[in-house]
Amino acid sequence: MSTRAARTGKADGCRGIPVPRRRRTRRGAVLPPLRTSVAGPAASEAGRPDDRLERRPDGRTDGVVEGRRFREVLGTFATGVVAITAVDPRDGRPCGLAVNSFTSVSLDPPLVAFCVAHTSTSWPRVRGAGVVTVNVLADGQRDVCAQLASRGGDKFAGLSWTGSPGGNPVLGDALAWLDCAIEAEHAAGDHTIVVARVLRLAALADGEPLVFFRGAYGSFTAAQPEPVLPEPAPAC
């Protein structure tokens, strides 16, 4: 897998994990910060730990997982990248965002899930449609991904797309698409886990997927099968 592309900055919706506040007793004595837990790989950049706390080699500081270390470790888990698209029912314009937390959940019924930061400015427009379309992005769509991950402006300016059977944007050159009805949303730390039921789907191309690894876009290369060697002739 190659990660030649430039590293990305803050995407639409990314935000830090707040630093725990200190507690005070009735007499005003300062106690250590409350212990907190960070939920799942969807968490993004964290606040800076108290400089007076001793930092340990395992990335923990007085029981609190340091955000920078958390992202570094979770970045070793390579993921695909999808674009979640819809048509805003308020103005009839296409809207969307890029997500790398997409996963299948269930075969019966067919369910998928993805995570969206609470600070996302695009998600309120997308979720208003009720039915969204998941576009599986191809390796050649790095610029498309970066455009959809940006904040503000017309994210679909210059993008080629057609309508899915449900009417949502299917991006040109995407590997596949899935029309999905939002079924549930679960708050999880600084993100929301969205569960959706697959209504329709199709694979469009046989190309390679866009990959996200160690904070950078990359590409996937399938391993070549080992050649089958003939068995040696029996000894005389």
Could you characterize the architecture of this molecule?
With 236 residues, the chain is mainly β. The chain has a domain at 81-210: Roll (Pnp Oxidase, Chain A), CATH 2.30.110.10. Helices cover 9% and strands 32% of the residues. It has helices spanning 67-74, 123-127, 142-149, and strands at residues 60-61, 64-65, 79-80, 82-87, 94-99, 103-106, 111-117, 131-136, 161-163, 169-171, 176-188, 191-203, 210-213, 216-219. The strands form 4 sheets. The chain has a 7-stranded antiparallel sheet. Strand 1 (60-61) and strand 2 form a beta hairpin. 30% of the residues are buried. Residues 2-8 and 13-54 have low confidence and may be disordered. Keywords: Oxidoreductase. Residues 1-63 are annotated as: Disordered.
DSSP summary: helix tally: 3
Superfamily (CATH H level) name of the domain at 81-210: Electron Transport, Fmn-binding Protein, Chain A
SSE string, helices as H and strands as E:
EEHEEEEEHEHEEEEEE
Query: What's the overall average pLDDT, rounded?
Result: 79
Spatial sequence of strands, sheet with the most strands: 5-4-8-11-12-7-6
Please report the distance between the alpha carbons of the first and last residues. 47 Å
The secondary structure category is mainly beta
Total strands: the figure is 14
Shape, principal axes of CA atoms = globular
Biased composition (Basic and acidic residues): 47-63
Domain Flavin reductase like: 74-219
Region (Disordered): 1-63
Pfam families: Flavin_Reduct (PF01613)
